[in-house]
Amino acid sequence: MKKRIIIFLIAGLTACNQNTKSKKTITPNKKQNTSKIDINNILETGVLYEANIRQYSPEGDFNSFTKDIPELKKLGVKIIWLMPIHPISVEKRKAKGDLLVSEIKDKKEQKKYLGSPYAVANYKKINPDLGTKEDLNKLIKTAHKNGILVILDWVANHTGWDHHWIKEHPEFYTKNNNGEITDPLNDDGSSIGWTDVADLDYSNNELHINMINEMKYWITNHNIDGFRCDVAGSVPLDFWKKAIPELRKQKNIIMLAEAWEPELLTNNLFDMAYAWEGHHIMNEIAQQKKTVSDWDNYIKKIDTLYQKDDILLNFITNHDENSWNGTVKERLGNASEALLALTYITPGMPLIYSGQEYNLNHRLKFFEKDSIPKTKGKIWEVLSKLGHLKNNSPALNGGKKAAKYERLHTNNDNKILAIKRTENNSEIIYIANLSPENVTFSLTIPQNFKTILSNHKSELNKTVKNFKPWEYKVLTINK
Predict the structure, then answer these.
(1) Contact criterion met (CB below 8 Å) for 294 and 278
(2) Residue numbers of the domain that contains 399
(3) Which terminus of the chain faces fewer neighbouring Cβ atoms within 10 Å, N or C?
(4) What mean pLDDT is predicted for residues 246-256?
(5) Do the domain assignments include residue 409?
(6) How far apart, in whole angstroms, are the C-alpha atoms of residue 241 and residue 329?
(7) Cross-strand bridge partners of residue 94
(8) Domain-located, residue 351
(9) 15 pLDDT above the threshold of 50
């Protein structure tokens, strides 16, 4: 059984588990659109967009999403992550909680439940609900024309119970003492709760070869630009050491691990990992369980835990957080906008989840069809300004050559977070009152500043004196 390491981020992982007839393919070559896209620049200046295709539109298909790609570009998006696009297993499909669809007697009611996209039935096929191979190719081509890369969500830890390997290669799966294939288990042998999927056993080297070939398929046939790898820390490191170099032989790709373990980022393996701890600290600051001092300690911690060229993904929401732990407003309340801005100011790459740009304020259904709002409002404007700043200000470079992060100290550092990011002649200052009360403090700032973003209209003098609850400002310094 694979050893599962659970330290400070298990809450963020609990819900990760939840065919077309065309033969036309794209063979990648160096003259395709991606040859004009500078991946290193994207890692420094890009915004990542998580696309929940099923819930993105009433139609829930590729084409409805593709037409909006030019709009996402306006938000500074440089990478689109497609949640799993594969067919979803029917066997042991979940309806809600521990209830299986097969346990529902009403056939009409059964049809409502579409299953978890993380219960993959076939790695080389497309869920017909989303569209065809040609539709996917159109999406990718459109993204590339807009200077945006596309990465696929890859579920290497487990498959759905309908997957053909269950019958063809039962040796690929974890077994219990009775020789029966199991769902993913905790170290003590108890079920994690992902009963709609079958756990893969990476002690089998043939599984390694087959899984790598499945991943190569999407690079060689659809010109995919990389992978976001689900629960990557639960898959043995030895597999990634084999797989990623093989994948990079096909094309220069981006690899994102849904994991925190620093070893996944060593030796040109994954480019980026999840800032799970930072995410949880932001939640707890908003809920008054932690303070700015905890954030400062976190920044010091990641400086020692990770190498200077490691990249972390910063976020206030994603598909798991929204569906299972609450909307942005539920978790962050009035602190939402200040903490959203912080995900752009902090070294790394910021994430936008489908609907966040439209101020999504309900928990999207995970096993059923749902849809996001499409009315642009204040959050669209905020994300647009932050995206422009991230794309164009070297002071917010967050990749392998991240700009300098400097803590500016005040006389109230437990409530006021003041940060300066600098790169050559570019300078950005972020000041936020991360508390629910008015705060008076002193901080000297240069006279030649310009306020780029603020959630209050109060004026700034050379010495800042008072911020309202959860007030923040983002400044540029003219040099």
Answers:
(1) no
(2) 10-403
(3) C
(4) 97
(5) no
(6) 40
(7) 100
(8) yes
(9) no
